[in-house]
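hi! just following up on the protien thing from before. the input was this:
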Amino acid sequence: MRRSTGSSIVTRWQRLTVPGWYGEGDRVVEICTRTAVWYHSGLPPVPIRWVLIRDPQKRFDPQALLCTDLIQSSLSSVSWFVRRWQVEVTFQEARRHLGMETQRQWAAQAIARTTPGLLALFSLVTLLADRLVCKNRLPLPNEVWYTKPRPTFSDALATVRQHY
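and the predicted 3d structure came back as:
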């Protein structure tokens, strides 16, 4: 509870169960949400829903999420936030292994044409590697200094290149 000039302001937190929390299964968080107006000079005001999230177990710092679709529930906003991780990992892998950010073309149009091709290549390698996994033909190379629980994209790429 926070006190200010004689009046008390109480934040009312609600418990919310978020399914599929970063691959861990269901996770209980506490949220507080309201609607506000976002002003930006030169533009019309935009209503937004803000959602504050905190972890009752204190494993992550409180975070604020914003959503311009006022019809969506707080659970939708939090679920979208959690699912974005899979997209971020995909782009990180594509940058690391396919050089998406190191394209050396002269025109922005060339980059706009190349990037979808690289993402398609990434998807194709992933699908072909999945076929090999289903046939138990994707080996799991272990290095002397550490053990891998699953193959990396580099392992999948090397195996797909060798097999096909």
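Residues 12 and 138 are 51 Å apart (CA to CA).
The longest helix spans residues 108-134.
cheers
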